[in-house]
């Protein structure tokens, strides 16, 4: 019966991950706050203050969900899209760099700032109002009917701006950064630089001239005019999968040089290049549409969702599926958020087991680090909550399995995969280092693949802040750096910093290339045993401290040998990475990699894992025995106090979850209702 149940759960899990592309499948309705609840919540938000003020124009558009709903209101209810599209494009431009920024700059300049005029035939009755109608960003309609008995109006050619294509927000993180200007300054800027005769967004004056002068250097670059038009139908300006069509490096030397020059020059453009123009457009939009938005169902929907975001998450909000793995204190299972249908991984850690192993500090460290680090190369924490017996972490569901699993199937990875995985892992480590953390547990088992083949770091249980007194081996033997094992002349363990991660990174690269970790190999074991070490563990440790690995030329080319040896340098001060990941990125082994595509998360993965379980059988994963020690352990008030700050909701993750839901509703053209609707006070959010 147990095997049958496992098989059923496996089938349900595979069906769930295979259905992700078909859209969210919620099983619970969103809760609607009462008027009293909403009023009380708004009052508490207003008390917190801050700038911009809660619920106002600037505040709303600084949230991805607010930006999305305001944009939807303008396009669906007001049929006025050009100005908000410009604001969206500026927000996207700020997140790009290199040739992607050059492409986006070209698109904004040609479609909005230098928008061409075209002749439109209108009757004379409407032509006389052309000067004022040109201020509108939508296509002008026909004039009013002529009075009875009047002469038939003649048709004349009137210049109108050629409008850019209408686009929709399809990303989950697009928002507007508020510009640091007072309301008076914004109004003054707008009044002095608004000019409906200049372009389709009515920006002129000194603001337009300043932007165009700064673009001159870029626009005068040879070949700039032939730069591919930036496709604005997806987040990244490429195909529907978000992969830029310009990722491929041009074949000719001249094209390569033009791309390089455009990348360098576009990176020199100031980050605030379009800020003043965007402020003028935003002021125009605010004056025309903000009052209408506040009275619309779109605004009500925004408030309802943000109210839900601030509610405490509980275990009953999730529906558990298959067990995926086993940690030190509990199991990791796949789960579904009931209201949105979003799939996640749920890491459950039992408070008693944590107490027995005196691991409260490590547990809190993991939660804090996950909440603190926001990177596409590290598994994201969306929620954390607790029950009387357990603490929970809700994480990205990485359905593709870990790299150890795939390495065992393939023997070793092809060069393209080694480069891709190595680059993303390195950037994940740097993201942790930038926040002051050292990972300490890098190994293939802790590198997970998403359904799309993108790899992320996971299991941050041993991650900790770097301090002057940090010492002691942590992680997995054979991936430890030598400084973790060294002791001073008095036998005291020596301190270390983030450089231990680059040694572990060298171990992983060598393992990806050859299939074997150089310090968990037969030569390493024999080296330690040959030096008189009596156990396997001590032999591996001795090899880590003293042995220089030998790399077979059949699998390691000259550059691969060099990067591995430099990462595995016994001296942390001279180890590759001592000056940050940029010196690793510039190593010749990585020379074929397109770093702009990797950093911006646009690079198409070289391997897409099958839509299967990609994990050990549930019977192999096993469960935890509740022995005598477990039953005799009692949790008291002091133990509960440890987790007083455990509850957490990532605003970014919640809004992304809701936006995925709303985008699917927009695409299907109908409300997304739960499979089973409860007859409670809850219903679909209006």
UniProtKB/TrEMBL annotation:
UniProt biased composition (Low complexity): 125-153, 241-253
Domain of life: Eukaryota
EC number: 2.7.11.16
Keyword terms, alphabetized: ATP-binding, Kinase, Nucleotide-binding, Receptor, Serine/threonine-protein kinase, Transferase
GO MF annotations in UniProt: ATP binding; G protein-coupled receptor kinase activity
Span of domain Protein kinase: 318-590
Disordered, as annotated region: 125-158, 229-257
InterPro entries: AGC-kinase_C (IPR000961), Kinase-like_dom_sf (IPR011009), Prot_kinase_dom (IPR000719), Protein_kinase_ATP_BS (IPR017441), RGS (IPR016137), RGS_sf (IPR036305), RGS_subdomain_2 (IPR044926), Ser/Thr_kinase_AS (IPR008271)
Coiled-coil regions listed: none
RGS domain sequence ranges: 56-113
Top EC class, one word: transferase
Record's keyword annotation contains Cell inner membrane: no
Domain AGC-kinase C-terminal: 591-658
Residues annotated for ATP binding in this entry: 347
PANTHER family in UniProt: G PROTEIN-COUPLED RECEPTOR KINASE (PTHR24355:SF18), G PROTEIN-COUPLED RECEPTOR KINASE/RIBOSOMAL PROTEIN S6 KINASE (PTHR24355)
Protein name, as recorded: G protein-coupled receptor kinase
